[in-house]
From TrEMBL:
This is diguanylate cyclase. Keywords: Membrane, Transmembrane, Transmembrane helix. It comes from Alloalcanivorax profundimaris. It catalyses: 2 GTP = 3',3'-c-di-GMP + 2 diphosphate. It holds the Pfam family GGDEF.
Length: 296
């Protein structure tokens, strides 16, 4: 990500150099015996840490308002400490006052901007968490994520189901979704477009689910949805909505051709099952529905 922010990095480096040049132009280097090394270590260490935080922020964030606040805040803090360090090695004449402004002005300004940045960052994170809910539901475990779709995988599904099924008195339905004849689709489109189709289908399904539902990639072209607090009737309605959404999804191949696909669905509402038994029933239901003739 650092390459996205090269202007910001250049601006901070230029500012630090300007402060150094202004100190050199206005003052004289102190003798070695005058230097308080402990102060240099403390203030220099703080400047270095502020610079390191700046690098870490820039390396992990896209451009935008929140990043600008964080960078401006940390730059203020870094410059204040940098001036502190320069004060230790360069003696400025009594008449010079701007160094006090750099030190005492940049620090509180930096703190205010950093606080604003952290406040907006927190709001941004809450919004992202809301979006991630349908992928993660209750806990976050990044080793469980499927690289292609960014959805969680079958072991994660089992753990979530175990938690849901442990909650007495609450209906839970498991929905299995499978792309019809995906093997044929993969041969027709090629692996790269088939990969992209799976990714886009995952996004489409997420968009059509409710806040508390959990979508996982069960295996290959099979997805699973945990529907908490949902009985058979409601789950059937939801399944119909997902089928309709996929029916109307006009996937575009890299050649710009339209490809249409169909989703097969299986449902199983928990009746005291263990996770594996519920998954098995949902898979069986999917296979049984496939055998039924398609509605005219
Ligand atoms: N491109 C791509 N293909 C995948 C991926 N995972 C599984 N597949 C392919 O998905 C196909 C799944 O085939 P099947 O299990 O026969 O399922 P199907 O063709 O949908 O058959 P039905 O389920 O009976 O409709 C295989 O060709 C796999 O190679 C993936 O991540 N990317």
């Amino acid at each position: 990500m650092l390459h996205l922010h090269r202007w910001k990095i250049l601006a901070v480096a230029t500012l630090a150099n300007l402060v150094l040049l202004a100190n050199l132009a206005a003052g004289d280097p102190k003798g070695l015996e005058e230097i308080a090394w402990l102060d240099i270590a403390g203030e220099g260490g703080a400047a270095l840490l502020a610079f390191l935080w700046l690098g870490l922020i820039l390396n992990s964030r896209p451009s935008g308002r929140v990043t600008n606040y964080l960078v401006a805040g940390l730059t203020g803090i870094f410059i204040a400490y940098w001036q502190d360090v320069l004060d230790e090695v360069i003696r400025l004449p009594e008449a010079v006052v701007w160094d006090h402004w750099v030190e005492s002005g940049a620090m509180p300004l930096g703190m205010v901007l950093l606080t604003l940045g952290i406040y907006h960052w927190q709001r941004e994170q809450l919004a992202i968490n809301e979006q991630l809910r349908r992928r993660e539901r209750i806990f976050r475990e990044h080793r469980s994520f499927d690289r292609l779709t960014n959805l969680t995988s079958a072991p994660y599904l089992r753990r979530q189901l175990a938690m849901e099924l442990g909650e007495a008195g609450r209906a839970v339905t498991l929905m299995m979704l499978d792309v019809n004849r995906f093997d044929h689709v993969r041969r027709q489109l090629g692996s790269r477009d088939a990969d992209r189709l799976l990714q886009e289908l995952a996004e489409l399904l997420l968009l059509n689910l409710r806040q508390d539902d959990l979508l996982c990639r069960y295996a290959g072209d099979r997805f699973a949805v945990v529907l908490p607090g949902t009985g058979e009737r409601e789950a059937t309605l939801l399944a119909g909505e997902l089928i309709a959404a996929v029916d109307h999804f006009a996937f575009k191949t890299r050649q710009g051709e339209t490809h249409l696909q169909r989703l097969d669905v299986g449902l199983a509402t928990a009746r005291g099952d263990e996770p594996d038994a519920l998954i098995e029933r949902a898979n069986q239901d999917l296979e049984a529905r496939r055998q039924q003739p398609a509605p005219a």
